[in-house]
Each structure stands twice: as C-alpha cells, then as structure tokens.
Write a structure and sequence with these properties.
The protein is an alpha/beta fold. The protein has one domain: Alpha-Beta Barrel (TIM Barrel). It is built from nine helices and eight strands. The protein has an eight-stranded parallel β-sheet. The protein is globular. It starts with a helix and ends in a 7-residue tail after the last helix.
Amino acid sequence: MSVAENLRQVLKTVQQLAAGRPVTVLAVSKGQSAAAIREACLAGQVAFGESYLQEALPKQEQLQDLALEWHFIGPVQSNKTRAIARHFDWVHGVTRLKIAERLSEARREALLAPLNICLQVNLSGESSKAGVAPEEVADLAAEIAGLPGLRLRGLMTLPEPTADLSLQRQRFAALRALKALLVDQGYALDTLSMGMSQDFASAIAEGSTIVRIGTAIFGERRKTS
C-alpha cells in the first residue's frame, strides 16, 4: 500500500483504540525521504519525528513550504542542542539537566516560544537504553521545570521489545503511574509519549497521548534524499 493508505489505516486503528480520547500519531520519518514525508503530509499528517540532526535539517529545508511539526526523538548530544532547539518543536528524550539547560538557553537566544520536552524514563533498567531511572525522575523534573526556554510536557519511554502483551502493559502502566505522581506534586503534565508500531495498542490502552509510528506508515526505511 502507499504511504497515504498506510497512514489512513493507522489513524483509523488509533482512533478505534483511543475510543474518543485524543491520541497524536507521530510519524517517525527518520530514514525516509522528503518525498515520503510530503506524501504523508498531503494525506493529513502534521507531526513528524526525526532522530538524526544531520538527516533532518536537509529534509526540513526541502519541506519548508509545509506547516509541519517537528519532534526530535533521538539521543540529544551537547554539541547539537543549539540546532535542535532552533529547528524542532518537541524534544522527547531529555535525560540530563545539562542538556535541558543548553536547550533552554538556545531557545531563548533564538527568541522562540518555549520548547516542548519530555523526560525519557528507562523503565526496564537495560544498560543499553537511555533514560532516567524512575526514582530519579522527580528530582530531574524539579530541576528542569523552572528553565524559561522549556515547557515540561510529560514523560517518554522506550521499553524493551517484547511480544508479551502483559509485559507491554506493565511497562506503560508504570509510566502512567509515574506521570500521575508528578501531577500530584503540582507539575502540569499532559503527555505520555509511548508506543511504537509493534506495541502502540498496549500503549494506548495504558493512556498514551503520543504514539510513534514509523514502519506501519512508511514501510521499511528507505535511503533519504
């Protein structure tokens, strides 16, 4: 099927699973061409996720005639914070105060509205996965919440891949509970960025507000242009 047809099917499925609750589909366009992004946009998609700055910037230039919302979903390196802050609307993977401070400073220097961010949480405890340990999230939120160039929106997680639906639900429920705890502490959080092509049904069932869908929309990654 075409990108447009795949997108329509994904949106239909998400709407059915969400049962009236708003859930944003973030089209993960890393490794995809500007032409494929344009096709998805013409089919109604607005939000796109990129992981590599050097790949994203040329595509953004090619697509500047479109009113797109860009989300940075990869690891944030210190030397990339200025460009990320200036060229993206959201950053999903903040894990350190230093990175947050640099993003905030760059955003203010550019005279842009506060950058929407999510704190990335490592729920599975895998050493190969980035993210803050659950018990450290509250302290990081307290440090970041006052930075003037940022708007702390919520939490993100990338749990270990598994076909075990019970484990999927367990991981996503843990992030939902962690967000609820922070809300009880006074943080105005409205976002749970969790769920990808293989597990977004479980994520939506546990309260996800943003699902990151790549393969189900674009198919296997292509060489960018």
